[in-house]
Design a protein that fits this description.
The protein is of the alpha+beta class. It has one domain. Helix content is 37%, strand content 31%. The chain has a three-stranded antiparallel beta sheet with strand order 1-2-3.
Length: 99
């Protein structure tokens, strides 16, 4: 078996064994040498006083080099553009729109 075949089948097998995780919040931290992307899930929680609060539950942290972060950004942008071409624009809150 070639290294490529082993890597491909190993990656596919790992994806099948690993459940996907939902996240609706992300925080990006940077240093000169790496990007850390922290994925979390924010959910409303009823307080003891009967009010609502937001609970942030950590899901996963992914750390990568600046080179990998830039490649990831380029690929993600390409996929978002393809999605919008098929399904229409994805609206963003005003606070996230380019000014």
């Amino acid at each position: 078996m070639t290294d490529e075949a082993w890597t491909t089948s190993g990656a596919a097998e790992a994806r099948l064994r690993s459940p996907g995780r939902y996240c609706n919040s992300v925080e990006i931290l940077t240093t000169e040498f790496e990007f850390a992307i922290e994925f979390s899930q924010t959910v409303p929680v009823r307080t003891e006083q009967g009010g609502l609060s937001i609970d942030r539950r950590f899901v996963e942290r992914v750390v990568m080099s600046p080179h990998h972060a830039k490649a990831f950004s380029t690929m993600l942008s390409r996929f978002v553009n393809q999605f919008e071409a098929q399904h229409g624009p994805v609206p963003l809150p005003e606070s996230l729109q380019d000014k």
